[in-house]
Design a protein that fits this description.
There is one protein chain. With 74 residues, this protein is α+β, with helices and mostly antiparallel strands. It has one domain. It contains 1 helix and 5 strands; from the N terminus they run ββαβββ. A 5-stranded mixed β-sheet has the order 1-2-4-3-5, covered by helices on one side. Strand 1 and strand 2 form a beta hairpin. The longest helix is centred in the middle third of the chain and has 19 residues. 24% of the residues are buried.
Amino acid sequence: MSATAQTYPSPGMVDVSVDNASHIDHALNDAIETVKAAAICHQTGIMITRIGPGRYIVRAHPAVPFGLIRQQHN
């Protein structure tokens, strides 16, 4: 699988890059699992932001209610 994820120093944020559309769901699910602990700790939801073709930021986000996952496209 050709997908990369970079964890940032700030807890609860992962940069996801995929070069094959068939890998998007798996890569995003892995990123959600990575930030889930931070979202639970801070009682926030998770925001997935598409920042370009095959590029996403997945992060615990205070604007998302606890227990929810929202998506946005920039």
